Amino acid sequence: MDDIAIGRIDVHSHLLPGIDDGCQTLEESLACARMLVEAGYTHSFCTPHIWPNLPDNNTSVITERVAKLQRELDEAAIPLRLFPGGEINLRPDTADLSAEDVVTYGMCRRHVLFDLWAEKIPAFFEPAVKHLQSMGLTTILAHPERMRAVQDDPGLADYFAEMGILMQGNLQCLGDPPTTQTRQVAEQFLAEDRYFMLGSDLHNLKSLPLRLKGLRRAIEAVGEDKVRQLTWDHPKQLLPLAKS
Ligand SMILES: [Fe+2]
Fold it and tell me: Among 52, 113, 115, 134, whose CB has the most other CB atoms within 10 angstroms?
């Protein structure tokens, strides 16, 4: 599978079966992978939640689980190349993490994806992010459009940019009804070229069509060239051995 030509790269997915609140069975993972391939994806990072109550979601177990799912994909002749990763829930104790415990894209220790659920930006935000950055990591905030703090004040995008934080938008938010704040903020950030990349954040087969509808909606809104940059060119920088 190493010689697979690069197409779209999914940068945020809960494709690994039975490891978090994402796909629950191997069959569901395979069905989602098929649907991704049909939508033009050739590569996907598996980014399970990194939560305190999921202690097995660490660098070694995720890497093993990705290799196992890759073997299943290969056996099923589904041309999708997987890489390990994780979605770190930013918490006060993130500032205590040692470098070897930080789950990064491709486990390459270059880029890290984190999420935060907050009505206001908490006091621990800056120390936690700066701790990750002190390890030489590029920090990427998952789906800011889903955060209440950002919905109330989209201007926080400037604050994130000043801190050197990149933003990853969720495709599903672009497929949400037009009146929702998730869609409005996502469309604003897309139009203002605020996003570094877009990811599916797929969790199951049922919601994947809506997420892929968001991909088509993004193309309608800003054009294929821009969406290619956000789902293909920029994500290439996350790949192991990538020459961006
Ligand atoms: Fe996620």
Answer: 113
Q: Please give the structure tokens belonging to residue 54.
A: 């999921």
Residue 43 is assigned to a structural domain of this protein = yes
**CA 5 / ligand 1 centre spacing (Å):** 26
Domain total in the chain: 1
According to DSSP, the residues that pair with 202 across neighbouring strands are 13
- Ligand 1 centroid, distance to 46 Cα (angstroms): 10
For residue 138, what is the domain's CATH number?
3.20.20.140
> Taking the model in full, what pTM does it have?
0.96
Instruction: For 49-67, write each residue's pLDDT tens digit.
Output: 999 899 899 999 999 999 9
Distance 24 CA to ligand 1 centre (A): 15
Cα 208 to middle of ligand 1, angstroms:
13
Distance 11 CA to ligand 1 centre (A): 10
- Which residues on neighbouring strands pair with residue 141, listed in sequence order? 114, 167
Check: CB of residue 173 under 8 Å from CB of residue 12: no
Per the structure, the complete domain to which residue 198 belongs is given by 8-236
Q: Which of 3, 2, 5, 25 has the alpha carbon at shortest distance from 14? A: 25
Residue 199 CA to ligand 1 centre (angstroms): 9
